[in-house]
Fold this sequence. Notes:
The protein has 222 residues and is of the alpha+beta class.
Amino acid sequence: xxxxxxxxxxxxxxxxxxxxxxxxxxxxxxxxxxxxxxxxxxxxxxxxxxxxxxxxxxxxxxxxxxxxxxxxxxxxxxxxxxxxxxxxxxxxxxxxxxxxxxxxxxxxxxxxxxxxxxxxxxxxxxxxxxxxxxxxxxxxxxxxxxxxxxxxxxxxxxxxxxxxxxxxxxxxxxxxxxxxxxxxxxxxxxxxxxxxxxxxxxxxxxxxxxxxxxxxxxxxxx
Length: 222
């Protein structure tokens, strides 16, 4: 509602009614003011409309964020653990080999030292002792390839914390050349558990990196 108060000065000249110049100027200013007010009201209505649309969009995004948060909470922990375990700087894995040509005069329960490191991403394998130490509790995969000297056999054990898990054989008996065998194990380890390969009985093995030991973390466990 617009309310204008003004003083009207009217002149009579030769029978013609005439307003003062001041009144004409006032009317012109009032017209400009009214036009500006109308434009401001339209701008305010436009801003209100945009604000309402923005509030609706924010509410929609909040609902989507809440649904995503619930989905992440229900995501299987073992999958997220496995994903975390393969990130750079956290992945656990190694491969090492026996670099010397032959390891002879091995005694019973002699630890095989795989001295040449090919991969050792977290430093969990120790090439001075031949022992892998688990940095996390989890499910690990280990494999070993052993090559026997021609005409000889060699029984080997994979050992977990001092106890034999499995025995395998590199059998070159009766052969004129070298004989290799490969084996793989999936083992659940506690943090700090130790794994290594040792002889089951006295003998010798061929090196030159044909005898290898590998392992990696498959997934962390609680």
